[in-house]
Please model this.
Amino acid sequence: MSLESANVPAADHAHLYGDGLFEGIRIYSRKVFKLDEHLRRLYDGCRFLDFQMSMPVAELKAKILEICAESGVDSGYIRLNVTRGTGLGLDPSHIDPEPNLMIMVTSLALYPPEAYETGLTVVSTSYRVIQSDSLDPRVKCIGRYAANILAKREANQLGAGEGLMLNQQGNVAECTGDNIFIIRDGEIRTPHPSCGILQGITRDTVIRLAREAGLKVTEDTFTSYDIMSSDEAFLTGTAAEVIPMISLDGRPIGDGKPGPISKQLIAKFREETKTGSAF
Ligand SMILES: Cc1ncc(COP(=O)(O)O)c(C=O)c1O
Model:
């Protein structure tokens, strides 16, 4: 089915209230990257939000691989949405609880290719990540992204490549669609999940690759000061992949160029993208 002919019920609960979950997943050379990890996060989110997701994970995985094969896309991006169901009104007990599912296979380029060589400039935004006592940020809920879109808009207006979001305590959380890593004296730090981040699958992959390379990685709490006094920094995300960050609010990080450990991890990550679920 073409994208244009696909449709969603007008009273879909994510359409009405943002009451849905999504995953963005990469395809590299006819292999879906980290599909099991994305499905695990999706099903964890369904449990948390209490969606009546009756489709077994193996069936959804098979469906995704089938649609990828039909799409003719060799390298691209999958957008997977699951929503609570259909019906007007907030009360989940008054709606049809059959989740609406969308599997979209498309192409994606988040940042221009040269940004992977030159690095991204980042600015602090005025938007804080949502507090985990309102909605745990590990739940990739569609509705939570309105704040990230406003933060991205603010970064765009300032001419920056990305926008940094702090948490309510003023500690670093993440960028609008990416996790953040900093490096000083050869040691890597990234915000702990309790800082209010989406626990990114790319983040987890990079932590493992760095540790396998003998590098020390700490999941930690830190402020913008720590970013500005780092030797290197980089961002991770399915769409972003691994991309160097070269400044925060006009202050260069290190010498203002992508650093050697960032480059080493980018190379290791690119190797890792050769793995995945083939179709
Ligand atoms: C807010 C936010 N943080 C981090 C990430 C990175 O997560 P992942 O590596 O699982 O794509 C994303 C991307 O989906 C995101 O939207």
User: Anything to note?
Assistant: The domain at 115-272 is CATH 3.20.10.10 (D-amino Acid Aminotransferase; Chain A, domain 2). Residues 24, 148, 174, 177-179, 198, 200-203, 236-238 surround pyridoxal-5'-phosphate (CB under 6 Å).
